[in-house]
Amino acid sequence: MTESKVPQPPSREMIRQTLIELLEADTGEKYPDLDEKTNLREGLGLDSVDVVSIVSQVERRFRIRLTHEELQTLVTVGDVLNLLEAKLAAGPESQAA
Description:
It is built from four helices and no strands. The protein is mostly helical and 97 residues long. The chain has a single domain (12-28, 38-94), classed as ACP-like (Non-ribosomal Peptide Synthetase Peptidyl Carrier Protein, Chain A, Orthogonal Bundle). It is globular, with a radius of gyration of 14 Å. The mean pLDDT is 86.
């Protein structure tokens, strides 16, 4: 049996670019310079439906599951990047809902 190479988790910048792409597709707005301190609701003008939509797209894109508790901690763009980076670095065994 051959050993399969463990894929490297995406870089923070790659996660950030994916998040921008999903935000732009979902809202129709452009986010050329998405600051990590930007508040998701006030700064980006997202309502709870937008946040749920973005999160479900992120889950599908990265093949991860985010818990309700994790979602409640997301306030800024940086919070989203930190959570995704941690989940992706942890590997598939820690991503089950």
